[in-house]
Amino acid sequence: MILSEIKKYLTANGEASVATMSKELGEDKSMVQAAVDYWVDRGSVTEVDGEGSCSSCCSCNCGSRLSNLEVKRYRWKG
């Protein structure tokens, strides 16, 4: 079921981090990462180059130390 939720979320929202999807979908981060990895392996999802900024904005230079789950973003290829 989480696979279809990830597909719907990324299709509707364009791109998102694992942390964001986990919060929005109410699922554990490791489950969301596993589902994203499944779609990446099948070529349906691609990793988007992150800027390394915090998840609250796209251009800050706050120097926040965030995990890869918060910085890496994924996009549905369609």
Core attributes:
single chain, three-stranded antiparallel β-sheet, 78 residues, 3 strands, Arc Repressor Mutant, subunit A, alpha+beta
Describe this structure in words.
It contains four helices and three strands, in the order αβααβαβ. It is α+β, with helices and mostly antiparallel strands and 78 residues long. It has a single domain, classed as Arc Repressor Mutant, subunit A, CATH 1.10.10. Strands 1-3-2 form a three-stranded antiparallel β-sheet. Helix 1 crosses helix 3 and helix 2 crosses helix 3. The protein is globular, with a radius of gyration of 12 Å. The two termini are 19 Å apart. The mean pLDDT is 83.
Quick synopsis:
The protein has 78 residues and is an alpha+beta fold.
Topology:
Elements lengths: L1 H12 L1 E3 H8 L3 H13 L3 E4 L19 H4 L1 E4 L2
Antiparallel strand pairs: 1-3, 2-3
Helical content band? 40-55%
Please provide the ordered H/E string of secondary-structure elements: HEHHEHE
In terms of DSSP E residues, the strand content is 5-15%
- Beta strands, count: 3
**Please, how many domains?**
1
Uncertain regions spanning at least 5 consecutive residues: none
Tally of individual helices: 4
**What is the CATH topology classification name?**
Arc Repressor Mutant, subunit A
Biggest β-sheet: strands ordered side by side in the sheet: 1-3-2
Q: What is the rounded Rg?
A: 12 Å
Secondary-structure arrangement, i.e. CATH architecture: Orthogonal Bundle
Global shape: globular
